[in-house]
Amino acid sequence: MAAGKRPSLTGIAAATLALLTLLGFGGRLHPALDSLGHFRLQFGVLLLVFAVALLARRRWRTGLGSAAGAALALFTVAPHLGTPRIGAAQATAEAQRPVYRLLQLNLRFDNDDQSGVLATIARADADVITLQEVSAPWRERLKLVAARYPHQLVCGSARRGGGPAILSRRPFAGAVSPVTHCPIRGMLAVAPVDLGGRAITVASLHLGWPWPHRQPLQLDWLDAMDDGQFAPDLLAGDFNAAPWSETARRVRARTRLGQVEGIGLTWLHHALPAKLRPWIGLPIDQIMTGAAIEPLSAHTLPDAGSDHAPLLLEFSVLRSDTPRDDAPVRTVLLGQSNTR
């Protein structure tokens, strides 16, 4: 009697990975499952590799199962990674609306390459900048751009890692102070910015690491805030969460904002070469916009010395009487990983 094939180590590894991938879809059930879901892209790629190896060895059942798991994972993340879309900038030009820029960057509180960040700020020529991990050394360095960005809200933090900040070339629409505009210390900065006579509320958000760390608690804090404290038109930050995650969904639901997709992979541990970030990184830095904002393009900029990629959003502000049939929540597909 012929003995059946024993499970191979490759097959066991593939089955385990497929199980972890499926569990990652249960983020609404428990934050631990959402933590797994952040790695859905990486799990999908690894499952595809296992599937090829298993099928090459005629392990049909586990090979086809791995291929199905890879297809499910990659199919569900593909819309969030996005594809280039053109034409919005031309439409805005024809409508004669001004185009503004927002630069988003987690500085990394202990970043030794501070000159790289300052050079990025100079090259980006943004109207508004949202920052995270503005530590004490960074507060001193940012004084060098005060002439260019005289309107600054820097929120403190009890942690060494620093807090969020908003820098603007354009004036704030009214008085801004850390007492009223840093509602959650070390996590959130909110400021009204005057863009051509139209005030929009910009927010810089830094969520902590996923479960078992503080991220689920921080989401509860956001949910507990009223709209007088937190109703942004433009939200950018380090979410420590993928755009397909339950964490990102909860932020979108709380703010009624739409996800700007197509930015790409934005974070990689600083011990690894930054040139690998577009290939093996995690898409944890997000930009979201409301009905008053028309995103035109969004992409990563060259490495600035942080473990996060700088993000640049070009957008216009719609007139208050401009109808939007897709407001308030929408998905925007834009180009990714371009350089300027």
Written description of the protein model:
The C terminus is likely disordered. The chain has 340 residues and is α+β, with helices and mostly antiparallel strands. Helix 1 runs antiparallel to helix 3, helix 3 runs antiparallel to helix 4 and helix 9 runs parallel beside helix 10. A hairpin with an 8-residue loop joins strand 3 and strand 4. The longest helix is centred in the first third of the chain and has 22 residues. Helices cover 34% and strands 21% of the residues. The strands form two sheets. It has a six-stranded mixed sheet with strand order 3-4-2-1-11-10. The chain is built from eleven helices and twelve strands.
Primary descriptors:
disordered C terminus, six-stranded mixed β-sheet, alpha+beta, 340 residues
Task: Kindly report the spatial arrangement of strands forming the biggest sheet.
Answer: 3-4-2-1-11-10
> How many E strands?
12
Order of helices and strands: HHHHHEHEHEEHEEHEHEHEEEE
Name the helicity range: 25-40%
- Beta-strand share of residues: 15-25%
N→C terminal distance: 67 Å
Average pLDDT figure: 89
> What about the largest sheet?
6 strands, mixed
